[in-house]
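Run log // design_07
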């Protein structure tokens, strides 16, 4: 079983849900979570995940979260690509509201051929994100993860909406009426109130938990695509990266030069580990990023590798700069982004 069309529609839906649950760095989903998402019973879900495990698509143990195997991940991304390309087509071409696209995309995705999807992708101009701000995996499965905290966790400062959760159509319609969509600029004041260009926004706790934002300060993204694609997602426009590695001139690491259409030249950095690329960009200060093996020496300010790679050290970027597991040493602040069991990324933000 090496193609998504070999799966039943139920299996396709399960893989898509399992993958999407962890896409933004949230914990893996449980059978209870899958049941709630599909509106079915845990007993039905347990039977299905056992079949998927027998097919080598997921790993599953009772009372434990569900995780995808390498093959399951490959097929899940293919289904996510179908769904999000169709949602984008329904919105941009047929004029659907972003709260209206999900159900029809669910129906159409199971009948879409690769030939159709390739032409759809080309017709849409090869979009990188769907109407809600979620990444559209490429034809080979490559995708981009923006490091974008929830609005409810973002500190005071300026932020740009990166993503709005698509699970509640009524909420989507209401947020649309407030002018909130990917790319909307928001400001959080010292009291925690949220403002847009139109004034104060009446957002409750659920709204703030549905919105992910990029800070006006340091921004990070990682994934398999080329650095240009990652930077384009960070800054919101196509870019050309010109590298300046004084040692070897390589375009695979170091501190490149990046000029935007409006003339801005943010300070940026690129690092690589295996198939992953990590990029960072900031308009203030200087940004340095290095990628290290977890067995390497801990960066300044960290007592041990174990401390450096703790799960709670996952980066949260806010308008205040780098927040979370950030340590101070001399004039540099260090933080870490966990990319998995073998690789971690460290960065320093210099004044």
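design_07 sequence
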């Amino acid at each position: 079983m090496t193609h998504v069309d070999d799966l039943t529609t139920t299996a396709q839906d399960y893989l898509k849900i399992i993958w999407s649950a962890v896409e933004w760095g949230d914990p893996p989903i449980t059978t209870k979570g899958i049941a709630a998402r599909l509106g079915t019973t845990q007993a039905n879900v347990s039977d299905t995940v056992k079949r998927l495990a027998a097919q080598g698509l997921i790993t599953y143990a009772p009372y434990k979260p569900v995780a995808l195997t390498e093959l399951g991940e490959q097929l899940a991304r293919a289904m996510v690509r179908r769904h999000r390309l169709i949602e984008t087509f329904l919105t941009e071409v047929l004029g659907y509201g972003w709260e209206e696209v999900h159900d029809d995309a669910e129906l159409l995705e199971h009948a879409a051929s690769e030939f159709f999807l390739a032409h759809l992708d080309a017709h849409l101009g090869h979009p990188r994100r769907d109407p809600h701000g979620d990444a559209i995996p490429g034809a080979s499965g490559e995708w981009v993860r923006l490091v974008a905290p929830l609005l409810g966790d973002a500190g005071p400062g300026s932020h740009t909406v990166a993503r709005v959760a698509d699970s509640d159509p009524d909420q989507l319609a209401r947020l649309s009426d407030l002018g909130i969509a990917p790319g909307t600029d928001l400001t959080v004041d010292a009291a925690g109130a949220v403002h847009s260009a139109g004034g104060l926004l009446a957002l409750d706790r659920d709204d703030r938990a549905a919105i992910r934002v990029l800070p006006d300060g340091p921004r990070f993204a990682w994934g398999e695509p080329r650095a240009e694609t990652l930077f384009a997602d960070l800054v919101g426009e196509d870019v050309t990266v010109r590298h300046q590695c004084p040692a070897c001139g390589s375009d695979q690491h170091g501190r490149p030069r990046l000029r935007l259409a409006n003339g801005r030249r943010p300070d940026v950095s690129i690092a690589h580990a295996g198939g992953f690329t990590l990029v960072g960009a900031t308009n203030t200060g200087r940004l340095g990023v290095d990628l290290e093996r977890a067995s390497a020496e801990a960066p300044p300010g960290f007592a041990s590798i174990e401390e450096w790679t703790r799960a709670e050290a996952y980066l949260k970027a806010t308008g205040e700069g780098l927040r979370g597991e950030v340590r101070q040493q001399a004039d540099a602040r260090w933080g870490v982004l966990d990319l998995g069991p073998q690789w971690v990324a460290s960065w320093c933000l210099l004044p």
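The chain is about 30% helix and 25% strand.
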